[in-house]
Amino acid sequence: MSRYQPPLTLTTRMLALIAGISEQIGQLTAVDERLQTPQLRRSNRIRTIQASLAIENNTLSIEQVTAVLAGRRVLGLPREIQEVRNAFAAYEAMPEWRSSARADLLRAHELLMGGLIDDCGRFRQAGVGIYRGEKLVHMAPPPSRVGHLMDDLLAWLSQSDWHPLIVSCVFHYEFEFIHPFADGNGRMGRLWQTLILSQWRPVLAYLPVEAVIREQQDAYYAALSAADQLAESTPFVEFMLQALSIALEEAGNTESIIDPVTDPVTDPVGRLLSALQVNGPLKISDLMAEVGLAHKATFRANYLRPALAADLIEMTSPETPSSPAQKLAALQFSDGHNALTDPVTD
After folding, report:
1. Residue 261 placed within a domain
2. 82 pLDDT above the threshold of 90
3. pTM of the model
4. What's the pLDDT tens digit per position in 198-246?
5. 307 and 202, same domain (yes or no)
6. Which one of 44, 58, 71, 139 counts the least CB within 10 Å of its CB?
7. Where residue 119 sits, what CATH number does that domain have?
8. Which of 240, 214, 193, 186 is closest to 51 using CA atoms?
9. Residues 178 and 132 grouped into a single domain
């Protein structure tokens, strides 16, 4: 049995958050089979990947990430495009892994960082410090201790009788403290927390909590620093539980109605697709006229962006998106069907 026990002070705030999250999960699970469509799951996974990589300074937007995963050309840095492909492959492989297995952790890192760093899938062999700007905020343990520390942490993970919500947050913090890899530790920590949670409640596999972290990135780093200063994970656990609660609340709100990004047959998107299929490729001004809109912001928010994000339409000249000759066309599938009559079902 592992002798390692991560330091943590259980607080009343944690208990309240756990109770609330458990209720939220129960509500989400009750409607999961009906509302968690393949489109919605894919959309949430794309949001997860885009946000987790954005935290690490990847500049690709939701629309660009969607295009990369659809195999379409994207104007972006090759490294950033590779990061997206790797992250999608890693999240898709989650069901194959055991969260407490060192070999699976290393395989996940190899998949996540393949082609990006030389020593992917191996613990670091050099010292590493974490900087915010020019300030050193954390000096990770020396490389000679990494293997032992990770083995202790994984053994604790396999045997802990703490609540899975607490366990996932504590592991995330301890993993970031050890910083076992030369690069990719942040995205690996977030991926592994999702894995731990998904093995407890499968509905959490597609919860885009990374999007909440991205919106509260300064608070995320502040919680890590506060935990370092206290020499226990308590501040970070409270932050992550709050982030999970927010993500669940957003999931409940967006799934009680049709999600315009992931359900291609909402009224606005359906009208846009119908116009394109009747008239063929159209300029944005002509397309707005066809659907009876004069306000460009409304058109972009309710019609254009949801259709692009769901991969239902495409630009005729993607290399020059701002070209005066640019037109939009309904995406045609390889079997000859179209996006309106045959919605995407991954």
Report:
1. no
2. yes
3. 0.73
4. 999 998 999 999 999 999 999 999 999 999 999 999 999 999 999 999 9
5. no
6. 71
7. 1.10.3290.10
8. 214
9. yes
